[in-house]
Amino acid sequence: MAEDEKTALKRIFKSVNEVRRQQNCTHAVLVGHNAHFDLGFLQAAIARTGTKNQNPFHSFSVFDTVTLSAVMFGQTVLAKSCIQAGIEFDGKEAHSALYDTQKTAELFCYILNKLAPHLLDTLVADQ
């Protein structure tokens, strides 16, 4: 039997909140491919279930790999962005929630690792 929405959200939020506290963070930030779309669903589920006080995620800030991929590769399609990043992508597995989530995480890490040195140089230069 499937877990009800409120129970699932509480379980997920508890896990994220534990890591957030361990890292001394105020909020977690959602990462996704078209993350604002996902954030809308998350916020609707929070409203339906009354779990706002347990929500670890920032209410409007996200890391969106669609936007990051557009800047990095001139490409917004997950499969094409992964391929340009050298990340293996199986079209037969695509569009399953777990597979797309795993590939989005790999893509985000790739982009962040490529951009991080440049961002740090920019931050240091601005001081």
Provide key terms for this protein.
Nucleotidyltransferase, domain 5; single chain; two-stranded parallel ribbon; mainly alpha; 127 residues; 10% strand; 2 strands
Q: What does this molecule look like?
A:
With 127 residues, this protein is mainly alpha-helical. The protein has one domain: Nucleotidyltransferase, domain 5. It is built from five helices and two strands; from the N terminus they run αβαβααα. The chain has helices at 5-22, 35-49, 65-73, 78-84, 97-126; strands at 28-32, 57-64. The chain has a two-stranded parallel ribbon with strand order 1-2. The chain is globular, with a radius of gyration of 17 Å. The model has no long low-confidence stretch (mean pLDDT 93).
The CA-CA distance between the termini, in Å, is 56 Å
* Total individual domains: 1
Largest sheet data: 2 strands, parallel
Radius of gyration: 17 Å
Class, according to the CATH hierarchy?
Alpha Beta
Count helical runs.
5
